[in-house]
Design brief:
With about 200 residues, this protein is mainly alpha-helical. The protein has 10 helices and no strands.
Length: about 200
Amino acid sequence: MKLNSIYIKRFIFILGLWPILSIGIDILQNNLGANPIEFIERHFGKWTLIFLCLTLSMTPLRNVTTISQWILYRRMLGLFVFFYASIHLLCYIWLDYHFAWIDIKNDIIKHRYVLVGFLAWLLLLPLAFTSSDRMMRRLKENWKRLHRLIYLIAILGVLHFVWLVKKDLTEPLIYAVIVSLLLILRLNIFKRKKN
């Protein structure tokens, strides 16, 4: 069982690099559309949400299937959330604004979708920093409390996408439904634990 989980983690890690490989293929094939910067930013933003949904689904999967092994992959998936959120942010401050910090600050103040997106990334920082076994042992019960921030991050991530899109809301609303269902499942789990 332990050996299998090592192979599965390696497989998840390789699959987790697909967003970088796929955007590389798009760049080589000049397949970035009329606005390449927006295409690259949205690519990494969507993959951040995908990994966020996958991370949130591990505990419900464990409870539905009664297979505890799902939890072993939650941390790796969570780190991919931070990784792709950071690339998404880097694309914004580098490709979009060329590190013009005053313009970036003004954009954060002016646009609510930028504000909630930036706030979500800031909240991811302590989760990424405390993701090791050593930090888990050091923080004890506080570790669980801190890592419940992922639920707020998920809500902010969906809001960021919903407020960003101006015309067709289909895709952001799909993510909103998925995240809502995963959070409802989590609420049911907490209620059962209390009873």
